[in-house]
Design goal:
63% of the residues lie in helices and 0% in strands. It has 9 helices and no strands. The protein has helices at residues 29-49, 56-63, 67-74, 77-89, 101-117, 122-130, 134-160, 170-187, 196-209.
């Protein structure tokens, strides 16, 4: 609140009415709560019933919201899946900093392994759905682009430590390090292998040190 300015011989201005504080904004509000309920329902419906069991009506019933609300905001199943992936990209995730390239890649791979082998696996379900839904495929592609961009710091730190040459292609190295996990666990549907993340990381590091990913 401003105070009235006074000067010798000049009357002070009359005090102003104190301004009313704006009502505190509720964090998120009703819209955020509705979004959370709906996307939680999408996740649960997807892992339990697959893409064929994922409908707007089923999601609305499961979330406890009116179906017109879901249709108005998300239009269809593709919109629901796209927003679920958008939500995943909105987190503050950052790759681990272990002090070595091998440690960083292994930590990243262990996170990927955990997400693909947990039961039920939302990540595996979303990958499967991306082959049947164009909006989901586009959203998943955007999600991976964001994740790989965030992970480029792993390679930048390795270059700064002198572990890798400056001309190393960060994206190529990261794809090579993580690809074996998706190949074995998603494409081949192999049994979970706790040693796979470390082996894949070690192979990628050896290749990078030999200049395999130089631009």
């Amino acid at each position: 609140m401003r105070t009235p300015r006074t000067a010798t011989g000049t009357p002070s201005a009359p005090p102003r009415e104190p301004e009313r504080a704006a009502p505190a904004r509720r964090p998120g509000g009703r819209t955020a709560r509705t979004r959370a309920l709906v996307l939680d329902a999408v996740r649960a419906q997807l892992v339990e019933h697959g893409y064929d069991g994922l409908t707007v009506d089923a999601v609305a019933d499961r979330a406890g919201v009116h179906r017109t609300t879901v249709y108005r905001r998300w239009q269809d199943v593709g919109g629901l899946l796209a927003d679920l992936l958008t939500l995943g990209a909105e987190d503050d995730w950052r790759p681990a900093d272990t002090g070595t390239l091998l440690g960083d890649l292994a930590a990243l791979n262990h996170e990927v392994h955990a997400s693909l082998t947990e039961q039920p696996s939302v990540a595996a379900a979303l990958i499967a759905v991306s082959f049947r839904s164009a909006p989901a495929a586009d959203a998943l592609r955007g999600f991976w682009e964001e994740r790989y961009a965030q992970c480029e710091t792993v390679v930048e730190r390795a270059v700064a430590r002198g572990e890798l040459p400056a001309e190393t292609d960060a994206r190529a190295l990261l794809v090579a390090a993580t690809a074996p996990l998706y190949h074995h666990l998603v494409l081949l549907r192999s049994a979970p292998d706790p040693g796979l993340p470390d082996r894949a990381a070690r192979t990628a590091v050896l290749a990078a040190e030999a200049g395999a990913f130089s631009r």
